[in-house]
Amino acid sequence: MELKKTTKLAEVIDNYPNVTEYLFSINPRYKLLKNPVIVELMSKKIDLEHVAERGGWTFEELSSKIVDGIKAGKIKSGELPTTNTKEIKERMKTLLKMLYEGKDVENVKKEFKELISKADPILIAVVEGELTKEGYTVEDLMKACDVHLELFKDQISSSRRRVSKDHPLWRFIKDHDAMMFWIEQGRDLVHEMKKRKDYDDASDLIKELKLTMEHLKESENHDVRQENTLFPVVEKYGVEEPPSIMWEEHYNMKNKRAQIEKLIEGIPSRPYNEFIDIMEGNFIYLVETFSQHTKKEQEILYNVALDLLSDQDWKDIKKESDEIGYFELPKEVLDYE
Ligand SMILES: [Fe+2]
Hints:
Layout: H1 9-15, H2 19-26, H3 36-42, H4 48-54, H5 59-71, H6 85-101, H7 105-118, H8 121-133, H9 138-155, H10 168-193, H11 203-219, H12 221-236, H13 241-265, H14 272-308, H15 311-324, H16 331-335
The chain binds fe (ii) ion.
């Protein structure tokens, strides 16, 4: 096949399935090409000019390495390997739909567990994203997906352990701690309110809750900072799905936060007990959605970014983050390492 600057990586893989493996074997900068999910996500979008750039080569250098590899028999033409990411993805989708519909739950859960022990977490996030687009709601999927959460935990190394204090990711991770701290504080306040008789009786707690909600609103600066600095850089490398999923989740959580604020503003228009019930549901939603969301960001997106981005990228992210600014972290979070 003829290699051009505009040839997509996917076209080369279609003809020579082991080309990514070979490129990594001769250039450590292609570490990411070891990951079949990333390759699946990127290869249709990234062209050879950008692949070359990623490896610190010119396009001419890259294409001659590929041609030499083919001549030496190291890059072989042929069929795609049997552990096809697409197949896993389709099977996972079917299983998730079955879980969602409550069909044959025990067996499906078992197969699902086996499948995700083989699959990469990004793939799960991608599948979830695709199903949401097909009309499945986040809440329903969450119920179906509880199986994978526990596996998520020990399956992947945390980005937390990989960054030092002066790295831009350190602050993003601290932001998450702060946001979770306030969400849990809100949930606990609502829990306390259950013990009170009416709005008057709970006035001190309502006052505290308003303050907590203000903190949560300010902390959305974290989303703005990520959406403007980190996401575009990751997307630039052809990894578009994970940021778009995170983007959507930010939007959903922001809406929920606004709903809670509206409910508080509306006091005392609805009966006290009804207010508590709705608030409780809203905070359960926030705790669950946010903990899954941070897991995806820290363990998927950040780890991908750490593999993908150059030192200059991180410097740019730091500079742009400083320009956008930060919200104040609570003492409890700063003290916690
Ligand atoms: Fe986020």
